[in-house]
Design a protein that fits this description.
globular, about 190 residues
Length: about 190
Amino acid sequence: MNPITHLLTGWTVATLPGGLSRADRAWVVAAGLLPDLDGLGIVAELATRNSDRPLLWWSEYHHVLGHNLGAGILVASAALAFTRRWTVAILAGVSFHLHLLGDLIGARGPDGAQWPIPYLLPFSSSPRMTVPWQWALNAWPNVALTIVLMAYTFWYAWARGRSPLELVSIRADEAFVRALRQRFRRQA
């Protein structure tokens, strides 16, 4: 799945229980995005692709370093250590694992290749999880899921007064909510 879908999935998880602070919601959303930190290797790979010794950090490590049980335990543990709230740690773990599930079922490459998820790392290098029916990254199920998550996000912002924008700017979030509420006024 794409980063926007992962972000909106994490946001949805963060809004379900209610009662979480802005910082708590940020931890849950971040947990849904953190697996893709292993994709940053693409910068080094592109920068060195024409050299004598290219760094294949993206080709070899994307969907490996951050896409496993060990990374999930680390993320949930960090959420618990920083927030001291089991609810946040559990939701961070759920958000993290929804990212892995999304990549498992909806991240087939344009050439038909799959990225297996080495879920049991660092405890075991096998099995590497795949599903034979994995759909392409740009396939309609991913688009449909993103649309549903966007609809929920817009509804939540309109009804509850906050959106994912709060994670980067309170003022932008307030302006977005105000614009939504002005455009779609409640019927009396």
